[in-house]
Amino acid sequence: MPLQYYIYVAGMGLSVVLAALLLRESNRSASKLPEAWRKTRSFKKFRLSIWFLMIYLFLNLLSEIIAIYLALHQIYNSFIYSIGHTLYFPFFLFFLHCFTYTRWKNYAYFILYAVVIVYYILGGYYHPRCILSSESSLLTNGTHFISIILLLTDLLLSPKSDYFKFQLRICLTFMIFSIFAAILTSAQWTNTTDHKMFSDLIFYLHYFNSVVLYYVISLIFLLEITKLRRKQVKNA
Q1: How far, in Å, CA of 99 to CA of 109, rounded?
Q2: Mean pLDDT value of segment 49-70
Q3: How many angstroms separate the CA atoms of 166 and 53, rounded?
Q4: H/E element, 119
Q5: Which of 22, 68, 94, 162 has its CA 20 to 30 A from that of 130?
Q6: pLDDT at 187 exceeding the cut of 90
């Protein structure tokens, strides 16, 4: 397997491992907190959100490993991305739901997911021999971007809320990734030249954008783990 695949999968795996460690540290931190604080709604939602994010990242990793395996054996793998996105996207929406206070926005998350499912069904993208189009990538990134915007409008209204920085960092990271991915996909889609250099440039920019996403997410988890450990030492 080429080195670039190892670097990509390693980044995804690291994000899953650090999400699990963050969940463990939050549980340890909870055991040392007063019972009244452990039962607060914000702390419960924080821990639940980490669970959702960890499952999202794990299913994403699993989907990518299967897709890479099939690609290396010259087997159609587009349907793996469709099925994978169908399975892991709800957990990303559940993560956003944990910090969303406006009821209609929670309904909007459901509508966004329904749009994705209908698109895949009508496009025949669950078929083992399907080939995903550029529009499907735009839909994937677009639904992520819109869902994050829905949360940010709630989040920015309460900047002093618990775990605000953690939520903001995660949301902005995914949002920036989605924007760049959509721009690169559009550039690839509208390209009318046959220059290999341009195609290679778009490919490597896509790759760099995807790899950086998971390493930045891992860094955010690491910062939060460090923060929780410092609190434990301070309260010891």
Answers
A1: 13
A2: 94
A3: 12
A4: helix 103-123
A5: 94
A6: no
